[in-house]
Amino acid sequence: MKIRVWCERDKCMGFDVVTAEAPAGKCPSCGDVLSVTPPAAPDDRLDVAKCWRCACPNLYVEKSFPQALGCIVIVVSAAVAIAFAQRTYGLSFLGIILLDFVLFFIVPTRTICYQCSAEYLDAPKNARHKGYDLLIAGKYADTEDVGGPAGH
């Protein structure tokens, strides 16, 4: 499992990807050490019950879909729909729906910590972790920084 760890230094947007086997990395922007503390038992590595970086028990799950690819899919789908909808009697829309359906099952999920924004890539899905909840996120919101979750 890979973990994207964000730098905690104020105004730094650096991150590094660490693993349970190599739990320390270095911020490419400021040079700070970025690390996680994986659970001691090997069985615990399969289930992310709480954040390995900050021990926060609140985590959420989302699709790990690149935003740029999503924008490209929308633009191409709109162009195909406009160009071929009349000639195909709307069947091009079924192709777009099929593409969306396939992408839904192909794109993996990631688990994210509400407090430190650590991203657990390729982690098995935990049934206790649901989608993003604004009420839970508000509990961890930084009052000085309105820019996003945990200062990112």
Mind describing the biggest β-sheet?
5 strands, antiparallel
- Give, in order, the helices and strands: EEEEEHHEEH
Strand order of the largest sheet: 2-1-7-6-5
Radius of gyration: 19 Å
> How many β-strands, per DSSP?
7
pLDDT < 50 stretches: 143-148
Q: Determine the N-to-C terminus distance.
A: 22 Å
Query: Total helix count?
Result: 3
* % residues in beta strands: 15-25%
- Classify the secondary structure makeup into a structural class: alpha+beta
* Whole-number tally of structural domains: 2
Shape: elongated
- Considering DSSP H and I runs of 4 or more, what fraction of the residues is helical? 25-40%
> What number is the mean pLDDT?
83
Short recap of the structure:
The chain has helices at residues 67-84, 91-106, 134-139; strands at residues 2-6, 15-19, 24-26, 33-35, 59-63, 109-113, 119-121. It has 152 residues and is an alpha+beta fold. The protein has 2 domains: 2-64 and 108-151, no CATH class; 67-105, no CATH class.
Write the layout of secondary structure elements.
Layout (H helix, E strand, L loop, with lengths): L1 E5 L8 E5 L4 E3 L6 E3 L23 E5 L3 H18 L6 H16 L2 E5 L5 E3 L12 H6 L13
Antiparallel strand pairs: 1-2, 1-7, 3-4, 5-6, 6-7
Characterise this structure:
The protein is an alpha+beta fold and 152 residues long. The chain folds into 2 domains: 2-64 and 108-151, no CATH class; 67-105, no CATH class. It contains 3 helices and 7 strands, in the order E-E-E-E-E-H-H-E-E-H. The protein has helices at residues 67-84, 91-106, 134-139, and strands at 2-6, 15-19, 24-26, 33-35, 59-63, 109-113, 119-121. Strand 3 (24-26) and strand 4 form a beta hairpin. The longest helix has 18 residues, at 67-84.
